[in-house]
């Protein structure tokens, strides 16, 4: 096997890991900080080289480690290398010099974990690098050290601990059921395991926290507004996809039909796609709105997993559409977060051009014609035809409806960030070189449909263009209709204010439930338990004083006097029975 690819794969993990560890030291060489933004470079180089062997085995490492690039990991590695690289480059110009060592230490550790879990083909390495990425992300969330950042970081790390425990349980059960740590060899076996339901439940919980599924998404709207723009770009563009990759690795997709679980994933995903838009429309911060947009888009991907669980025979085609959607969403969402950060750091003269640049990823996410969103959503819609009619019809209706909802949400984002919007804070002088990483990302989004169109069997037909245009046009006409009347604008604003929930929405309910339980435990320990113990002690004392101990002693003495006679009788009976059996 060519030695170049194994070297690049090792460097893709080792290089950012080394940079992150050195930057965490009190004293470090100055050149390390200059190299810190380029931790993703080996990963980018590795993904452009075709792999002659699909798997690299290291038997002596961690119970036998399996590494490599396969058709699933290659698109994830491409997205990670590109977005981490551009975000690191952008951070080198946007993060203050006094804070860069702290930022890039956590940044590179999270990068190493992200690349490691993408390349890992066995459960143990996947879990270790998943944990590294999750824990290192905490440092990115609390980077600003504000009260909001500490609150977001605390909620995030609590959910991470819960998720890691669930993932560990899922992988432990899977390894025990399959008798192997290899994902490739475990998947066919898990479909027939008695532990399948428990594995699916814990995998949904553990990976769902990272993927932001409905009910487990509450950390995302808190983390994105407080994290620096480069951190938000990789959190939403790449790291949120680690939960999706965990499902792809572990679930028996393409192996076994699981109607109940497929329906569960589909209903949960499609509900999230619309719920997140409704809550996102009521938000007053642009990055919080983008966080809810990510929850909505991940809902579509969650539902696609359910589609695969329902139709294992169509899984190869579904997987291709899903991977294209992953690339499309990661690039577009990364560009929106970076653009929002750049807009805040731009002077008045540059703000108009930056805002115009935001339209490209926004239109792509909406699925407008000739964008990556049109390509991804059309391919995904084609796969829904494989479903039974009672599932295919809702998909055919709800996918265009989700495009309308996404267009409305991103339209509100563009209005919130518009240069003439008095609610938007004034810009600052732009750092030198800030524009180049973002421009490269925008160029990648523009070129995406052409590149993917050559790889995937897709035809730019008039029907496909019309299907992608109508949802965007419907949303645009709705906005135009509302904006033409002052009374309609006021009524819409009133409705949004009525529906407004703080970032995290369901988190308030969770926190109140936890506080109620803790208050009950404190009340039990402080008031109820001592009262119950005292009452029990009083009853015991009353019972002790009410008993006639002399009478009890007399009865016990009488019973013991008869005990030797009874024992002798039992012994004689045993001897008689034994003698009879010998005859």
Properties at a glance:
two-stranded antiparallel ribbon; 2 strands; membrane; transmembrane helix; mainly alpha; 77% helix; 583 residues; 23 helices; globular
Notes on the protein architecture:
The protein is mostly helical and 583 residues long. The chain folds into four domains: 1-252, no CATH class; 257-499, no CATH class; 505-546; 548-583. The protein is 77% helix and 1% strand. It contains 23 helices and two strands. It has a two-stranded antiparallel sheet. A hairpin with a 6-residue loop joins β1 and β2. The longest helix has 41 residues, at 506-546. It comes from Nitrosomonas halophila.
Helix-strand makeup class: mainly alpha
Number of beta-strand segments: 2
Helix content: over 70%
Largest beta sheet: strand ordering: 1-2
Our estimate of the beta-strand percent is under 5%
Which spans of ≥5 residues are poorly predicted at pLDDT below 50?
none
Query: What is the succession of H and E elements?
Result: HHHEEHHHHHHHHHHHHHHHHHHHH
- For the report, how would you describe the main beta sheet? 2 strands, antiparallel
Kindly report how far apart the N and C termini lie: 82 Å
Helix count equals 23
> Overall pLDDT, averaged?
85
Count of discrete structural domains? 4
The radius of gyration computed from the alpha-carbon positions, rounded to a whole number of angstroms, is 30 Å
Shape: globular
